[in-house]
Amino acid sequence: MKAEIITIGDEILIGQVVNSNAAWIADALTGLGIQVTRHISIADDFDEIVQILMETESRADLVFLTGGLGPTSDDITKKTLAEYFNCQLVENEEALDRIKAYLSSRNVEMNKLNRAQAMLPDNCIIIPNRYGTAAGMWFTKNDIQYLSMPGVPYEMQSMMSGYILPRLKKQYKLPAIVHRTLLVQGIAESHLASLLEEYEKTLPPEVKLAYLPSPGRVRLRLSSGGDDEKTVKAIVQEQVGRLVPYIPDGHFFGYEDEQLERIVGTLLQRNKKTLATAESCTGGNIAHMITSVPGSSKYFLGSVVAYSNYVKKSVLGVKEASLRDHGAVSRQVVEQMARGIIKRYGADYAIATSGIAGPDGGTPEKPVGTTWITVASAEKTESALFNLGEDRGRNIQKASMTGLNMLRKLITEENC
Q1: Which fold has domain 260-415?
Q2: What confidence tens digit (pLDDT) does each residue in 93-150 have?
Q3: Whole-angstrom Cα distance, residue 384 to residue 382?
Q4: Which of 66, 109, 253, 350 could be disulfide-bonded to 338 (CB atoms 3.0-4.6 Å)?
Q5: What is the pTM for the complete model shown?
Q6: Angle at which helices 260-270 and 392-415 pack, to 10 degrees?
Q7: Helix count (H) and strand count (E) of the chain?
């Protein structure tokens, strides 16, 4: 079964809004065994919408549309669909009641634009919207299903999860598609591919391996499909067990959407330990990642963003001689930063970073991307030098991920 995803909105075409809806829908459909063959973005334009709908008639079984269902004049999707599917817009009493209840719960007075959103095509299935005023619409034409949803991500996701996906499961006999994703930190995609070359040669033809790199990590996705879900799961899990030993110690850290900051937080909380960070080149990003996890106040004490040498000396106790003789980006300095934050906050563990994030500031001896990272406990200090590249944003993200993974390994070694 083939599906196409159409996102409607000028804001997407001009780059003002990132098209996250298509990625989310594609992931959800792939999990059902539905093959997504196209992502298409078009303008809020009648002719464009009609043209793309005509094209999908010869290609797709399912067509998902997002965007253009709001109350303002530039939202034309609903009127266009009504004309395309040869139906009338009529006031839907159930939709009107939902809009009234939604606005009332937020102490908002209904106006004529809100009421107009209850005008819906008379020949489609109305998809209720729990989190907004724009209902979704489900049309059928020549055995092709067309599903139109709002462009607001959480409204669309609620419709998909609560209504559309369960209905599709009942309506169609879909193949079982199983994915298992392994998360690897600290190995470049090309190097990882060379390490897995022999493993890939032994993969059965029904199992595919994909490399999905991002700053600081690579996701390895194993996928397979078939009629029997239990059998497919067993095949994929067998390959997971074979794959893990090929990844060098300490670099494999989890599965699926697990986050290093959550894994580290769980380890700290389980072992009743605390953490503080002393950050220079990462500018507080590690602290931000840690505190993005609910409940992190149980184990995270705080951070010092020691961007200047003055703060390194006055707050963290870094020696003037170390800065003079070795420079701020050095093993000596970053280790003193880690020890200083442990002493100042009384933490059990520390992460410290010092580097040249770029785009300038590098020298022949210490080019942009040069980064020292230290993780420390009361008993142990581990430091490593990295050359992370020339892009400032990527350097900060890579250094943050690397520091968290170094800490994960240290906590595991000391407590497991």
Answers
A1: Maf protein (3.90.950)
A2: 999 999 999 999 999 999 999 999 999 999 999 999 999 999 999 999 999 999 999 9
A3: 7
A4: 350
A5: 0.80
A6: 30
A7: 17, 17
